[in-house]
Design brief:
Number of domains of chain B: 2
Oligomer: heterodimer
CATH superfamily of the largest domain in chain A: Thiamin diphosphate (ThDP)-binding fold, Pyr/PP domains
Radius of gyration of chain B: 22 Å
Structural class of chain B: alpha+beta
Largest sheet of chain A: 6 strands, parallel
CATH superfamily of the largest domain in chain B: ACT domain
CATH topology of the largest domain in chain A: Rossmann fold
Strand order of the largest sheet of chain A: 3-2-4-5-7-6
CATH topology of the largest domain in chain B: Alpha-Beta Plaits
Structural class of chain A: alpha/beta
Strand content of chain A: 15-25%
CATH class of the largest domain in chain A: Alpha Beta
Number of strands of chain B: 10
Order of helices and strands of chain B: EHEEHEEHEEHEEEHH
Low-confidence stretches of chain A: none
Mean pLDDT of chain B: 84
Number of helices of chain B: 6
CATH architecture of the largest domain in chain B: 2-Layer Sandwich
Distance between the termini of chain A: 74 Å
């Protein structure tokens, strides 16, 4: 029986195991929405397409399966660009389907037409414009395959309305044939020479340090990372996207490194003689001033993306391949470095004792306190979404991550407004988990319309709105580096009445004005069956420390007095 | 900065040139010329890119190009082992008084006169970039009106730049077991996109 292109698209999505889609309809995509009407796929109507793109991204990060969003042409498609760029920078698997004007109208400046393939090209792993109804099932198959394999990323499918109306027999695609893309080969580290060199360096190290990023989480390598640490006794620090790969309560954990990482993690990297980078890409927020990064270290880099290797930092040993597969091999080749590393570990423990993470306990509500308490009351097992800014860094420092895929944050692009839609997307993918979101008042206002989505579908995310009345990170930089000239960073007195706003969206609001109210409010929120916002009026002028100012070496740390 | 000639075999599809050109601008790579045309296979196009940069930049260019799904094979062409040519069309001021002198220059460079007007001549020449530069320099005295250059194309003296056999990866279900199966299958089959680039470029790593 012949089906319409729209029906074929929806069937192809079902064949990929898609059970949940985020999006918003409109002219050019209406045939597809008509087909969705008959499908078992659970559709989530968002209030703004950017929200749909972040939801799909976070669904992908939380589950490892590509998240899907479907929107219409033109402005809807361009609204997803921020979400695509966010997912691309952080290697999140997602598939974005955009409506397009009819193939006959493409290029004519038709109503709601935009060159979406052109606009999205630099922020997607790959993209397609489907011109023939017979290509649909193949393109969908390829899109999902590309999105989730190798170094994952977003794939966009531009779907003209006439193709969605055209009819053809539905022939399910069962395989992909892409001669220019071979992720299995790339993921299998066969270069035993490089592995042996890495093992030799590690086995001879006196001051080794592991630096682990999001690639290890994507690769599901938590067991292998733990095995490497326990077997060798090498201390481990993670990037913001690597949080959760290794329990931070472990004595060999150095927690996060980089601009707002712990002093001892940064010192350890700087003083290390062998640095093992695993699924990380030497982002400038991690390295600080590059010429002075880890000056004494031989650097080993394991990464599935060869273009990440020696991109910013020249490495000594490069292992191209999947982190998990590489570590399985490497773990057999490395030995216990104890007791040769005894002095090194003692040195690190001294740094830990001297420079612990800390925050001010006196005064009003500190953001760190809220985050720490949420961590305790969720046993460090919730999925945590964040916006971007001070609260994001404090969440990274204070939640106490213990499980992989539990930190959902825009690390690479730094997309404010990611938090709430990400929490919703993650909750849809992991209904079994408690999902919390830490958001700032600045970030929150960028996508707060998605509260209505949470309310509509009763998606029980717990959002902690840490309201200091400022674009806090901007304020911090202006205080420290711009002579306290607070240009356009103050959000008061015009911030909305948040509890009223939240309730107007059909979401429960709880407000905390004093420290004493925080723990009861968290408990209340966690007990509540539906979505809830805990509005915390926090200290207004706190800064995130430790801080390595941009352009400085990692050991040039500003810490709290 | 050193110049490098990079041969890139791509799918002959709309939008591929954009992907490659966009990558160069997005990554801030310096590009001298880029030519593209069909190959002996209708479904394959070949680009010749001349780019500037140190060893590390070229390595990045190759690796970034390699990530594009539509890019099939890449080879950095070593000047000793490859032949390169450029075609140029030059319109020069010319009348009866200097026609002979001009033809002398053209003949010296084994060029051709392809059009003659009352006050100008159009010449055609092919050769290496250096030869064409030298010819242009000599023609300057006559008064150059218009120059059109193709940019460099190049071919290896040795093995051709091949497209690997497209392998089929079965991905029927998204379940993990199916994925593992398909990857095992894929690993045993051919398709070697990178072999060519690695030989000459990873010496500094």
């Amino acid at each position: 029986m012949e089906l319409t292109g729209a029906q074929i698209l929806v069937k192809s999505l079902e064949a990929e195991g898609v059970d949940c889609v985020f999006g918003l309809p409109g002219g050019a995509i209406l045939p597809t929405f008509d087909a969705i009407y008959d499908s078992k796929i659970k559709f989530h109507l968002v209030r703004h397409e950017q929200g749909a793109s972040h939801m799909a991204d976070a669904y992908g990060r939380a589950t490892g399966k590509p998240g899907v969003c479907i929107v219409t042409s033109g402005p809807a498609a361009t609204n997803t660009i921020t979400g695509l760029a966010t997912a691309y920078m952080d290697s999140a698997p997602m598939v974005c389907i955009t409506g397009q004007v009819a193939t006959t109208a493409i290029g004519s400046d038709a109503f709601q037409e935009a060159d979406v393939v052109g606009v999205s090209r630099p922020v997607t792993k790959h993209n397609y414009l489907i011109k023939n109804v017979k290509d649909i099932s193949r393109v969908v198959k390829e899109a999902f395959y590309i999105a989730r394999t190798g170094r994952p990323g977003p794939v966009l499918i531009d779907f003209p309305v006439d193709v969605s109306r055209a009819k053809a027999e539905y022939e399910p695609a069962t395989s992909v044939k892409l001669r220019g893309y071979n992720p299995e080969k790339a993921s299998n580290p066969v270069d035993m020479d490089q592995l042996q060199k890495a093992a030799d360096l590690i086995n001879g190290a006196k001051r080794p340090c592991l630096y682990v990023g999001g690639g290890a989480i994507i690769s599901n390598a938590e067991k292998e990372v733990m095995e490497l640490v326990e077997k060798t006794g090498i201390p481990i620090t993670t990037t913001v996207l690597g949080l959760g790969i290794f329990p931070e309560t472990h004595p060999l954990s150095l927690r996060m490194l980089g601009m707002h990482g712990t002093v001892y993690a940064n010192y350890s990297v700087q003083k290390s003689d062998v640095l093992i980078a695993v699924g990380a890409r030497f982002d400038d927020r991690v390295t600080g001033h590059i010429p002075r990064f880890a000056p004494h270290a031989k650097i080993i880099h394991i990464d599935i993306d060869p273009s990440s290797i020696s991109k910013t930092i020249k490495v000594d040993v490069a292992i191209e391949g999947d982190v998990k597969q590489a570590l399985v091999k490497l773990n057999k080749m490395v030995k216990n470095l104890r007791p040769a590393t005894k002095e090194w570990i003692e040195q690190i423990n001294e740094w830990k004792a001297k420079h612990p993470l800390k925050y001010k306990k006196e005064g009003g509500i500190r953001q760190e306190y809220v985050i720490e308490q949420v961590g305790n009351l969720t046993n460090h097992k919730a999925l945590v979404a964040t916006g971007v800014g001070q609260h994001q860094m404090w969440a990274a420092q204070w939640y106490g991550f213990a499980e992989p895929r539990s930190m959902l944050t825009s690390g690479g692009l730094g997309t404010m407004g990611y938090g709430l839609p990400a929490a919703i997307g993650a909750q849809c993918g992991r209904p079994d988990k408690t999902v919390v979101c830490f958001d700032g008042d600045g970030s929150f206002q960028m996508t707060m319309c998605e509260l209505v989505t949470a309310s509509h579908y009763n998606i029980p995310v717990k959002l902690f709105l840490l309201d200091n009345g400022w674009h806090g990170m901007v304020r911090q930089w202006q205080e420290l580096f711009y002579k306290e000239r607070y240009s356009a960073s103050h959000l008061e007195p015009s911030n909305p009445d948040f509890p009223k706003l939240v309730e107007a969206c059909g979401v429960r609001a709880i407000q905390c004005k004093t420290k004493e109210e925080v723990i009861p409010a968290i408990k209340e929120a966690l007990k509540h069956k539906g979505p809830v916002v805990v509005h915390c009026l926090v200290e207004k002028a706190d800064n995130v420390y430790p801080m390595v100012p941009a352009g400085h070496a990692l050991d040039q740390v500003m810490d709290m007095a | 900065m050193q110049k490098h000639t990079i041969a890139v075999l791509v799918e002959n599809q709309f939008g591929v040139l954009c992907r490659v050109a966009g990558l160069f601008s997005a990554r801030g790579f310096n590009i001298d010329s880029l030519t593209v045309g069909e190959t002996q296979h209708a479904d394959l196009s070949r680009m010749t890119v001349v780019a500037r940069g140190d060893e590390r930049v070229v390595q990045q260019i190759v690796r970034q190009l390699d990530k594009l799904i539509d890019v099939i094979s890449i080879e950095i062409l070593n000047p000793q082992d490859s032949i390169d040519r450029e075609l140029v069309l030059i319109k020069v001021k010319s009348d009866l008084s200097n026609r002979n002198d001009l033809m002398g220059v053209v003949n010296n460079f084994r060029g051709k006169i392809v059009d003659v007007q009352e006050d100008s001549m159009t010449l055609e020449a092919t050769g290496t970039e250096a030869k064409i530069d030298a010819m242009l320099e000599l023609l300057r005295a006559f008064g150059v009106i218009e120059v059109v250059r193709t940019g460099k194309i190049a071919i290896s003296r040795k093995a051709p730049l091949d497209a690997p056999e497209a392998k089929e990866v079965e991905v029927v279900k998204v379940k993990k077991s199916a994925k593992a199966k398909s990857s095992a299958k894929a690993a045993t089959k051919g398709g070697d996109k990178k072999a060519k680039m690695q030989a000459g470029t990873d010496t500094w790593m």
